[in-house]
Amino acid sequence: MITHEVLNQAPPREGVDEFAADVPLVEAVARWGTTAFSVGGGTEADAAPPALHDLGRLVGTADFQRDAELANANPPRLVTHDRWGNRIDEVEYDESYHRIMAAAIAAGAHTSAWADPRPGANADRAAAFLLLAQVEPGHACPVSMTHAAVATLEHAADGLQAEWMPRLLSRAYEPGLGGDAAGTAPAPKSSALVGMAMTEKQGGSDVRANTTRAVRRPGGGIRSEWGAEYGLTGHKWFCSAPMSDAFLVLAQAPGGLSCFFVPRVLPDGSRNVFRIQRLKDKLGNRSNASSEIELDDTTAWLVGDEGRGVATIVQMVTRTRLDCVIGTAAGMRQAVAEAAWHVRHRRAFGALLVDQPAMAAVVADLALESEAATLTSLRLARAYDVDATESEQAFRRLATAVAKFWICKRGPDHAAEALECLGGNGYTEAFPLARRYREQPLLAIWEGSGNVIALDVLRVLGREPEAFMAFFDDVGEAAGEHPAFDLALAEARSVVGELGGADAATAASRARELTERLALVLQASLLLRHSPGPVADAFVRSRLEGDGGSMYGAFPPGVDVAAILARA
């Protein structure tokens, strides 16, 4: 017997062009993407590559959302040996994960900005990355690492670059490793994904404490045109996406900590020694395998100079840090989209939730945070384009670290508040925000946790003062737009001056304060220059003036909630 009807539940949020629905993202792409620099340019209302609308419609389908759910409900499985007992060290993924990866690679979310380097290319690529990570974040790890690896591989020998770069730039996705123990495998794959393995048990972020050893092999090695060949012996405590085709690895060579290129399949088709010990049982990010690995005289090629490993691989790390920012912005957008959809369709106490002032203020505040993160992400991506001036490069050196610290730390609380908007539904695995809530803390940890990043900002202050000059030149373009912003900007400059002359302990104790101040004036400046007046005013008053309360939705009086919600 039917005992009830299903009433007053929000309909499925499916069949949406996620790009078109994200007004701040559309505007940011029009401002900093390739169409802004094409002949004739475009307008903020219509300028966007058609591929972004295509991708927005794809990730908004019920099938793509179902694949995102399946890829996390059916996590990767480690297979150390084949049925005959041969060591194979492979990870099996659900087919849903492979479909998502194929879509991401086909869209160029990995290396499109390298394949076609021009003004705006990195903003376009960031938008594609954001759209995909908005629905399924785990696959973004190998996509991001492959994008970032190109910058470090530019320091490799010409022969290695000639063979591997075209594979990284390919838009084909081939999930298998290829190769076998006997070296009888067919020709190498036409495409490749590249990861990195830096941290070890005893050191974590302190990679100079690494103990993995690199021993130079005599003679020209098995592929002399790839550069100097070494054997690596040791372990890595975190190695994500272990089915990637190659890895950039840090190890101690005679000349000091150095960077090495480690392919999983050697040029003769045999498997390199790459023993996957186990997969991490993580809080979130379940679709993406993260592993512990052992290396035993594993064949590797030097990238850059001996003793310059950190300086070489930091080119990759900087870009993965940017992708942590973009990934957090993606999560914020998903949280806002789901919360806004729910409150626009759910009724309680005689009215739609969105028409009730308390709920409207909460969702508007979440949307405000999301818009600030999106603008910061796309502005930073633009600074990585091929036409970046020395000033732009200095700006991004500081601003990337600042944004990584602040935006990634804002992610977890943002996800929790959005989840609460859905009530009990939000806390169940049937809806995506429970998965997002577990995902958001990750991006504040990977590629440098909060203290590591804040101390990096201090290092920039000591070693690259020109980065602070470039930062304040850019942020200062909003001077005069709001008195509270002008005061916050002056205070941030003052703190920089104080810490520039402080002893190391004092500076370190205030590193987080400095980084937070810099992040807030950066975001406020971007909103004042590029967002509608009600959005910028609400951000400055609630984040800089400190009016209202500290919780989401505790706006100061007079904020135009309706104007902010209209963009959610």
TrEMBL record:
Adaptive response protein AidB N-terminal domain location: 8-175
Flavoprotein among keywords: yes
GO MF annotation list: acyl-CoA dehydrogenase activity
UniProt domain Acyl-CoA dehydrogenase/oxidase C-terminal: residue ranges: 307-460
Stored InterPro entries: Acyl-CoA_dehydrogenase-like, Acyl-CoA_DH_CS, Acyl-CoA_Oxase/DH_mid-dom, AcylCo_DH-like_C, AcylCo_DH/oxidase_C, AcylCoA_DH/oxidase_NM_dom_sf, AidB_N
Domain Acyl-CoA oxidase/dehydrogenase middle: 195-297
Listed cofactors: FAD
Protein origin, superkingdom: Bacteria
UniProtKB keywords: FAD, Flavoprotein, Oxidoreductase
Pfam family name, one: Acyl-CoA_dh_1
PANTHER family linked: ACYL-COA DEHYDROGENASE (PTHR42707), ACYL-COA DEHYDROGENASE AIDB-RELATED (PTHR42707:SF3)
Family affiliation: Belongs to the acyl-CoA dehydrogenase family.
Protein name: DNA alkylation response protein
Native source species: Agromyces luteolus
Lineage start: Bacteria, Bacillati, Actinomycetota, Actinomycetes, Micrococcales
